[in-house]
Amino acid sequence: MVDVCQIIENEILPKVTKPLRYVGNEYNVIKKDWTSVKLRSLFAFPDIYEVGMSHLGLRILYHLVNEQPEYLMERVFAPWPDMEEALRKRNIPLFGLESYHPMCEYDCIGFTLQYEMSYTNILNMLDIGQIPLKSADRGDDFPLVIAGGPCASNPEPLADYIDLFVLGEGEEVILEIFRSMAAHRGKRGGRQDKPALIQELASIEGIYVPAFYEPVYDERNRLKKIVPKEKAVTPRVSKRVLRDFDKAYFPTEPIVPYMEVIHDRIMLEVQRGCSRGCRFCQAGMIYRPVRERSPEVLLEQADRLAFETGYNEISLTSLSTSDYSCVEPLIKELLERYSKQKIGISLPSLRVDSFSVNLAAEIQRVRKTGLTFAPEAGTQRLRDVINKGVTEENLIEVASVAFEAGWNQIKLYFMMGLPTETMEDLDGIADLAYKVLRKGSEIQKRQGRSKQLKITVSVASFVPKAHTPFQWEAQDTRELLRTKQQYLKDKIRDRRIVYNYHESEVSFLEAVFAKGGRELGQVLHAAWQRGCKFDGWSEHFLYTAWIQAFADVGIDPAAIANQAGSFEDVLPWEHIDFGISKEYLWQERQRAYEAAKTGDCRFGACSACGVCQGLDVETVLILEGEKLNDC
C-alpha cells in the first residue's frame, strides 16, 4: 500500500493535469482508521473533481456518514484521461482520495446519477477500479454497487451494472442501508453473502433491486409489463421523502477544496422541491413536495459555514430560490450580518415573475453577482403550453429593475424543440433578447453610464424526461434541431447578444437514455468498449462511436428519442413510483396542448398530483405572516 502511495504521489501526480484533483488532503476532510469501522463506503461522482465537489448531495452524505463513528465514507471522481492512462499503465486501480485504497476494497460504492451522459464514466470508473462491470459478475469479494440521484427515476439503462438503486432523498435512507449492511456482516463474522444481503436491503422502502424485476415484451418487441421475480418485493417501488426539512442533516464543516471548483462558495439550501409545475421539468416533479427550511436554522448554518470555510459568497440554493417564502427577510438579515466582512449573497435560480426591486437592491449592496432568468420560451402561447406562468412584461420589468440597479450583464435561458413549437416561437426568443437589450440601453443612457451591455442567450434542446407530463413526447430530430439553431443564429446579429446552444447530437443521446429501457445496457457497454467516456465534454464526445454501438446491438436510437407515446404504453419506469400519478401527468400533457395553465398548489387549489398524500408536510412557512397549505 505504501509503495502504491509513493508511486502515485512521486511519479504520477507531478505529470498529470491538475494533480490537486487526486490528493485528498483538503481542509475539513475526514480520514478514519479502516480497522476501527464496521463499514467502508465510497461516494463515486462520475465526472471530474471540480464538478463533483460542487455537488451539494456529496457534501451532505459525506459528512452525515462520517459523523457516525462506526462508518467511513471516502470520495472518488472520474480521472481525466491523462490520469487514467497513468493508472492503467502501472496497473494501479482507481482509489479513494482519503486513503488511496483501491475501489475494489470498499464494502459499497455509491454512484450519483446527475446526468445521462455520465453513464459511460460509471463503467470506466468500475473498470479502472478493477471491479467487474456487470452486477451478475460481481461475487462476494467485490463491493456492493449502489446508485441514486435524479436519473434513478429511470434506472433501467443501468440495470445490468447497479446492484440496487436508492429512490428519493439519500440522507433519508443511507444510514438505514448501512445499519442493515453492518448487521449482516456482523452476523456472518465480517463475511459478505451478497445475494442474502441484497435480499435484505430490498425490503427497505425506497430501494429498487433491478435483478428482482423482469421486463416482458410482446410479439412486436414492445414493453408489455415489468414484473417482480421475487415474492418479497413490491410491484412498484416508492421514493423516500424527508418530512421535516429543519431537522434534515446539513453539514456545517464542509470540505474546502484547495483548487477552484464550479461552485466555490457557501451553499445554503433554503428549500427543496418546486410546485410551479413546469411540464418539461423533471426536478420540479420528482422532488415534490416543497419543503422550506426556517430562517432561524439557515442563519445558524450560515454563521457556522462562514466561520468554518472562509468563503466570501453565500449562495441560497433551491430549484427556485426566489419562491422561498422568507427570502426577503432572510437576505436582509444575511447582508446585515456579513456585509462588513464583504461576504456577498447570490441567488442562482431566479424566476422572472418573483424577482423584486427590493431583492435586486439588497443583493447588490455588497457585490454584484450574475443574474440569470429563464423565460424558457419566446412566446406567451408556448410559455402557457409548458406552464411557465410568466409573461414578457414580467421579463422586461425585472430586467429594468436590474439595469436600474447597475447590472450590465443578464443571462437568459430558453429551450428549443418544446412540444407544439413553431418558427414564430423562435422569433420570439430573438425578439425578447433585443427588447431586453433596448431597455438596458435606454436606462444606461438616462443614467449616463457607458459600460458595455451583454445579454447572453443560452438555448438548450428539449429532452423528454421520466415522471413529467412530457415523458410521452418525441424529441425533434437532430436535423430539425440543427435547422432551428441556425435559424435563431441568423436572427441574432447584435454583438452585445451572445448566443449559445447545445450540440444536437448530445441532446439526442440524452433523450435516448432518458426515455429508453433495459435494452440500452448493451449499447452502453458497446459504446464504452469503443472508447466513449466524458460524453458531456465536447472535446471527448464520440458521436460516430455511439452510432456504431447502436448498430452493433441492433437498436435504432431514433425510434426511442424521436417517437411519441400514448397513455396505454408501458413506460420503462412504470414500476418506479415518485409519488405523482400517471393519470395526473397525462392530464397535464392534455392541458399543455390546450395551452391551459395549472396554478401553484402552494398558493391555490390542490392540483391533485398525488405526491402529498400521507406525508404530513408543511409546504409554506409564511405568507403575509400566516402559515398556509398544510398537506
Summarize the structure in words:
- By secondary structure, this protein is of the alpha/beta class.
- Among the domains are: 237 residues, Cobalamin-binding domain (Rossmann fold); 143 residues, Transcription Regulator spoIIAA (2-Layer Sandwich).
- 35% of the residues lie in helices and 16% in strands.
- It has a six-stranded mixed β-sheet. Strands 15-16-17-18 form a four-stranded parallel β-sheet. Strands 10-13-14 form a three-stranded parallel β-sheet, covered by helices on one side.
- Helix 13 packs parallel to helix 14, helix 14 runs parallel beside helix 15 and helix 17 crosses helix 18.
- It is globular, with a radius of gyration of 25 Å.
Strand proportion, as a percent range, falls in: 15-25%
CATH superfamily of the domain at 2-238: Cobalamin-binding domain
User: Which strand order does the major sheet show?
Assistant: 2-1-3-4-5-6
Helix content: 25-40%
Number of helices: 20
The unreliable regions are 624-631
**C-alpha Rg, in Å?**
25 Å
| C-alpha geometry | globular
Number of DSSP-assigned strands: 21
Largest sheet: number of strands, sense, barrel closure: 6 strands, mixed
Terminal-residue CA separation:
54 Å
CATH topology of the domain at 2-238: Rossmann fold
Q: What's the CATH architecture of the domain at 2-238?
A: 3-Layer(aba) Sandwich
Structural class: alpha/beta
Mean of all residue-level pLDDT scores: 93
CATH C-level category of the domain at 2-238: Alpha Beta
